[in-house]
């Protein structure tokens, strides 16, 4: 293509030169050229020979252009400029010591301004120098920058040097591979290898060493501290105040010399210094001169403080005990809780619950006293407010009987019979048959206000001189209602009549059978008979309305008269409105006119001193407005003419539309069609014009910008022009195309150039990138800024059959779905048969290889995967997703689905074997038939569901079961044997206590027998229940205490008997009661 275009370009250049010579010959013969005649004045002169030569002088400035502006000069005072496009340019000003030269701009540039100079040779060399800074760049390998006493030098990627004065130096070898730092002032030395993995630094004060992420050590002589960590297993840190040593996860030791504190943790995280929070470990021991704490999670926690002589013991979260000289607290959740605060004189206990949320309880303090046996009763007394309340057979407000008393009054109720409330001396309420506002009978009295109601017969109220009575209903919603007072009288008998007379406002309202209504006040009145008439009048000023046959506002006849408006209507024949200012409106055959609204009628006429309107639908409409000097008329809903002082619009769709605006100078004409789709359009405005003749041409001009298109759709809005030929010219943009032959676009502002031919050859070029596409053979791209190249064959990137990429750090090549190979520095990757890898993402291919100097990974899906890392000493591989193997320096694990799961941890000295099932995931147990685990403190093995055995060496405890029916648990203190659901035996060797449960598990069992040196129990539910504790005993028959048919209970404080529902007997040293 370029070979074919070269003769045409040569012929165009020769023709241009001949035209310039033809324009210059008459000038040499003494004849002035057409528009280039020389202008000679005292201050300005201009002499031109066509486009070959032109010289212009303005004051002290002289400029010259020659050879189609390829050669130009300028002199202005001491400043001079010489340009030979595109080879050479020079700017010089000796007065300012300024010189700038460029060769093949912007490839070579030299500039000097005073003491500063700059030189560039694109794209490889830059150099700048000034008194404050200096830099040199030789792309892509060498960079030097210096400012003040600091300098930076790089030989990418091999060498780097930072310097600060004569005392500080930092050297780089292969980037972060090796870094060395020296500071003579502080005697500081640092070495980094593979930054930030390995680091060593030392000065006069100490040293520091790290090997991420495993090893950290350091020492500071000035602060007197040192540390050493081998994460996450070992660590030691010493400061003048604290010392921390741990071996994770076995133990941790922390000592604090300032507080004389010592903390030890076992099996977990070590304790943290400078904090009182417990360590996340199974066992922790802490001690100070005034405090002692010991914890074995989740078994127990014991602490003792000598400051306030406080002891605290927690067992398995359920039992808690606190004792001190000031208070005593112990709780066994959810059986009981007890608290006694001697300092604040507070005592409380609760059974089967906590505090007041319990089945039975008692408590008192300086303000309140309460005791309860739920749901039988609850008694509360507030000594501060001197209030007293009793609830029986229920919970609080939901109890059947409730009694309360205060200094102001009292109340009691028996649901649902009655309720009595006397809150104040002059106020009392009582109701029967349900309570509150929903009761059938209710009587309320407060001062002079009395109300008596028996629903739904009557409702009577009295408040001073005011009376209210209703019969067969409530208040206004009654069959008969009467209300009377000094200023009001009203009554009604539904549905016959309603009468109301307000004596103070002289307001009377009367309604009869919902048909007739009469309302009268001193200012106005109205009378209405449904569907026949409705009239209203004003008493203090002339004005009245009358409507016949209908309901307002839809009535057949309407007349309205007032000082501001007169209106008549006889629907649908006519409507008329008039106001005193001389304005009136008339409508015929339709809806009447409304104020400032369109009248839906066939004929309408409106008149005012400055406005006139007449219309007869659909023949014509004429409107004239003398204020705006506007005339608007139309005919047959097609022709329209609008005219003002500066605007004219005349339209007859679809023949023509003409619009002119003298104020803006705009004019537009459209023929044959409706805007915006017309056959012909012409318009002009200020410094702009447009026209088109569909589908031949379309032309737009706005200032210096113009657009011309042929054979196609004209341009609509911002949408592209759908035409065969288009040309666009702006000061910075040139574009033209002939579809589908070629397209050319050049943007001087964005510095881009695009062209394509026959939709097959594309060329895109910017300052940073260039791309050439010849469909469907090749696609070539070059990124000049990043020096990256990419070639695609048979397709368009990125969807090409073959693809090649290169950059300064590596290269890659691939064949779609077959393979991809990439190499970046020492990192090599290969993907075969599938979706290849992309950057650092994984490859979705059958075979993949990833290799670095220290690690290698390769797989063939789904046969196998192999990964080895020499740096971390790990080895992972699996085959057919059935056989997995992991190996590290701390242990190994092998899984063979679904046969075996074998794991060994060398660091923890533990091992585990699981057979036939699902392997263990995380901390979840392994779902296998056989499982065996061994640690230094614990051993267990099982064969599901035959047996399960475990032994705890720390507590010398043994637990095993068979077929999930027989359990055996034993330790040095307790022994329990259970054969579910027949029998369960428990023994306590220290207290010589025992228990036997049959047909269930305690407490849900039919029979239970227990004994101890101080008591015993014999129960066979629901027949009998006998219990003895010291000198107290109880016996019940037919039920569960305390809801049994018969119960006898004897304690040191009294005797209680009941035979439900016949009698209840309570006997104590202070009282005796029989019910």
Characterization of the model:
- Helix content is 3%, strand content 63%.
- With 1075 residues, it is an all-beta fold.
- Among the domains are: 451-522; 687-754, no CATH class.
- The chain has a 106-stranded antiparallel beta sheet.
- The N and C termini lie far apart (122 Å).
- The relative contact order is 0.01.
Task: Write a concise keyword list for the protein shown above.
single chain; 1075 residues; mainly beta; 106-stranded antiparallel beta sheet; 63% strand; flat; disordered N terminus
Radius of gyration: 53 Å
Beta fraction = over 45%
Helical content stands at under 10%
Instruction: State the end-to-end distance.
Output: 122 Å
Largest sheet, in brief, is: 106 strands, antiparallel
Choose one word for the global shape. Answer: flat
Instruction: Give the strand tally.
Output: 106
Topology:
Elements: H1 2-28, E1 39-40, E2 44-49, E3 53-58, E4 61-66, E5 71-76, E6 79-84, E7 88-93, E8 98-103, E9 108-113, E10 116-121, E11 125-129, E12 133-138, E13 142-147, E14 150-155, E15 159-164, E16 168-173, E17 178-183, E18 188-193, E19 198-203, E20 206-211, E21 215-220, E22 225-230, E23 234-238, E24 242-247, E25 251-256, E26 261-268, E27 281-288, E28 291-296, E29 300-305, E30 310-315, E31 319-323, E32 327-332, E33 336-341, E34 346-354, E35 357-364, E36 368-373, E37 377-382, E38 387-392, E39 401-405, E40 410-414, E41 418-424, E42 427-432, E43 441-446, E44 449-454, E45 458-463, E46 466-474, E47 477-484, E48 488-493, E49 497-502, E50 507-512, E51 516-520, E52 524-529, E53 533-538, E54 544-551, E55 554-562, E56 565-570, E57 574-579, E58 583-590, E59 601-608, E60 611-616, E61 620-625, E62 630-635, E63 639-643, E64 647-652, E65 656-661, E66 666-674, E67 677-685, E68 688-693, E69 697-702, E70 705-712, E71 723-729, E72 733-738, E73 742-747, E74 752-757, E75 761-765, E76 769-774, E77 778-783, E78 788-796, E79 799-807, ...
Antiparallel strand pairs: 1-2, 2-3, 3-4, 4-5, 5-6, 6-7, 7-8, 8-9, 9-10, 10-11, 11-12, 12-13, 13-14, 14-15, 15-16, 16-17, 17-18, 18-19, 19-20, 20-21, 21-22, 22-23, 23-24, 24-25, 25-26, 26-27, 27-28, 28-29, 29-30, 30-31, 31-32, 32-33, 33-34, 34-35, 35-36, 36-37, 37-38, 38-39, 39-40, 40-41, ...
């Amino acid at each position: 293509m370029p070979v074919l275009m070269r003769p045409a370009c040569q012929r165009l250049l020769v023709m241009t030169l001949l035209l310039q010579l033809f324009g210059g010959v008459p000038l040499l013969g003494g004849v002035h050229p057409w528009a280039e005649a020389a202008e000679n004045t005292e201050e300005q002169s201009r002499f031109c020979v066509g486009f070959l030569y032109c010289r212009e002088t303005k004051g002290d400035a002289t400029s010259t252009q020659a050879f189609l502006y390829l050669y130009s000069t300028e002199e202005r005072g001491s400043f001079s400029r010489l340009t030979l496009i595109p080879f050479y340019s020079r700017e010089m000003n000796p007065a300012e010591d300024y010189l700038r030269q460029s060769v093949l701009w912007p490839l070579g540039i030299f500039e000097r301004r005073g003491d500063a100079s700059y030189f560039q040779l694109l794209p490889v060399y830059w150099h700048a120098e000034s008194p404050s800074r200096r830099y040199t760049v030789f792309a892509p390998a060498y960079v030097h920058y210096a400012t003040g006493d600091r300098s930076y030098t790089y030989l990418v990627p091999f060498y780097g040097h930072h310097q600060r004065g004569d005392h500080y130096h930092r050297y780089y070898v292969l980037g972060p591979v090796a870094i060395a730092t020296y500071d003579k002032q502080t005697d500081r030395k640092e070495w980094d290898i593979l930054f930030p993995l390995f680091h060593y630094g030392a000065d006069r004060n100490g040293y520091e060493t790290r090997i991420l992420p495993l090893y950290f050590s350091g020492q500071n002589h000035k602060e007197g501290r040192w540390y050493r960590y081998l994460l996450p297993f070992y660590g030691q840190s010493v400061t003048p105040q604290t010392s921390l040593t741990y071996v994770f996860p076995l133990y941790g030791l922390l000592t604090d010399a300032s507080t004389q504190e010592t903390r030890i943790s076992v099996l977990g995280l070590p304790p943290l210094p400078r904090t009182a929070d417990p360590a996340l470990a199974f066992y922790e021991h802490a001690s100070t001169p005034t405090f002692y704490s010991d914890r074995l999670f989740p078994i127990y926690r014991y602490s003792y403080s000598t400051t306030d002589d406080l002891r605290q013991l927690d067992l398995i979260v359920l039992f808690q005990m606190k004792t001190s000289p000031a208070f005593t607290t112990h709780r066994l959740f959810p059986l009981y809780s007890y608290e006694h605060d001697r300092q604040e004189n507070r005592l409380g206990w609760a059974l089967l619950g906590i505090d007041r949320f319990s089945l039975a309880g008692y408590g008192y303090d300086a303000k309140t006293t309460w005791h309860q046996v739920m749901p039988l009763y609850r008694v509360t007394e507030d000594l501060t407010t001197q209030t007293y309340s009793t609830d029986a057979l229920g919970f609080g407000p939901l109890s059947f009987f409730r009694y309360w008393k205060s200094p102001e009054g009292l109340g009691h109720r028996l649901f649902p019979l009655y309720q009595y409330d006397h809150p104040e001396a002059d106020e009392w309420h009582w109701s029967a048959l349900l309570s509150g506002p929903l009761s059938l009978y209710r009587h309320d009295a407060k001062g002079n206000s009395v109300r008596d109601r028996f629903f739904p017969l009557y409702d009577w109220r009295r408040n001073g001189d005011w009376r209210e009575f209703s019969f067969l209903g409530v208040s206004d919603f009654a069959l008969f209602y009467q209300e009377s007072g000094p200023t009001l009288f009203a009554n009604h008998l539904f549905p016959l009549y309603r009468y109301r007379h307000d004596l103070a406002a002289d307001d009377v309202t009367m309604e009869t059978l919902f048909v007739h209504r009469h309302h009268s006040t001193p200012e106005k009145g109205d009378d209405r008979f449904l569907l026949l008439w409705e009239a209203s009048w004003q008493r203090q000023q002339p004005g009245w309305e009358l409507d016949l046959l209908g309901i307002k506002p839809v009535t057949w006849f309407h007349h309205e008269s007032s000082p501001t408006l007169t209106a008549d209507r006889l629907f649908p024949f006519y409507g008329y409105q008039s106001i005193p200012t001389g304005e009136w409106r008339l409508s015929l055959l339709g809806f009447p006119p409304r104020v400032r609204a369109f009248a839906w009628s066939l004929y309408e006429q409106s008149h005012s001193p400055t406005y006139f309107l007449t219309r007869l639908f659909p023949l014509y409409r004429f409107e004239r407005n003398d204020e705006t000097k506007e005339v608007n008329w139309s005919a047959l809903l097609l022709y329209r003419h609008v005219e003002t002082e500066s605007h004219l619009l005349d339209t007859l769709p679809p023949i023509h539309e003409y619009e002119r605006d003298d104020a803006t100078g705009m004019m537009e004409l459209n023929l044959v069609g409706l805007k915006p789709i017309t056959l012909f359009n012409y318009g002009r405005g200020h410094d702009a014009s447009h026209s088109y003749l569909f589908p031949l041409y379309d032309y737009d001009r706005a200032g210096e910008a113009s657009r011309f298109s042929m054979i196609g759709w004209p341009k609509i809005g911002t949408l592209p022009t759908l035409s065969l030929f288009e040309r666009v010219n702006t000061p910075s943009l040139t574009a033209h195309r002939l579809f589908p032959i070629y397209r050319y676009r050049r943007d001087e502002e964005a510095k881009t150039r695009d062209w394509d031919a026959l939709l097959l050859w594309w060329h895109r070029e910017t300052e940073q990138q260039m791309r050439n596409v010849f469909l469907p053979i090749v696609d070539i791209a070059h990124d000049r800024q990043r020096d990256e190249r990419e070639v695609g064959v048979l397709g368009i990137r990125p969807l090409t059959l073959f693809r090649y990429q290169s950059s300064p750090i590596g290269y890659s090549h691939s064949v779609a779905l077959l393979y991809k190979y990439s190499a970046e520095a020492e990192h090599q990757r290969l993907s075969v048969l599938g979706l290849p890898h992309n950057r650092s993402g994984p490859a979705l291919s059958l075979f993949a290889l990833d290799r670095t100097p220290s690690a290698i990974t390769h797989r063939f899906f789904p046969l196998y995967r192999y990964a080895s890392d020499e740096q971390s000493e790990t080895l992972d591989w699996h085959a057919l997703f059935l056989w997995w193997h992991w190996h590290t320096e701390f242990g190994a694990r092998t899984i063979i689905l679904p046969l075996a799961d074998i794991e060994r941890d060398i660091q923890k000295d533990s091992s585990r074997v699981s057979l036939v099932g699902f392997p263990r995931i995380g901390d979840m147990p392994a779902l296998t038939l056989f499982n065996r685990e061994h640690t230094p403190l614990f051993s267990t093995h099982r064969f599901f569901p035959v047996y399960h055995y475990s032994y705890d060496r720390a507590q010398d405890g043994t637990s095993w079961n068979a077929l999930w029916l027989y359990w055996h648990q034993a330790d040095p203190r307790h022994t329990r044997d259970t054969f579910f659901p027949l029998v369960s035996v428990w023994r306590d060797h220290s207290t010589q206590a025992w228990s036997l449960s049959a047909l269930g598990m305690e407490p849900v069992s039919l029979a239970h027998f227990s004994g101890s040196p101080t008591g015993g129990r014999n129960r066979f539910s629901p027949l009998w229940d006998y219990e003895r504790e010291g000198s107290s005993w109880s016996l019940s028959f037919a039920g569960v205490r305390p809801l049994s048919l018969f119960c006898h209970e004897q304690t040191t404080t009294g005797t209680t008997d009941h035979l439900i529902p016949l009698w209840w007997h309570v006997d104590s040293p202070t009282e005796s009661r029989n019910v």
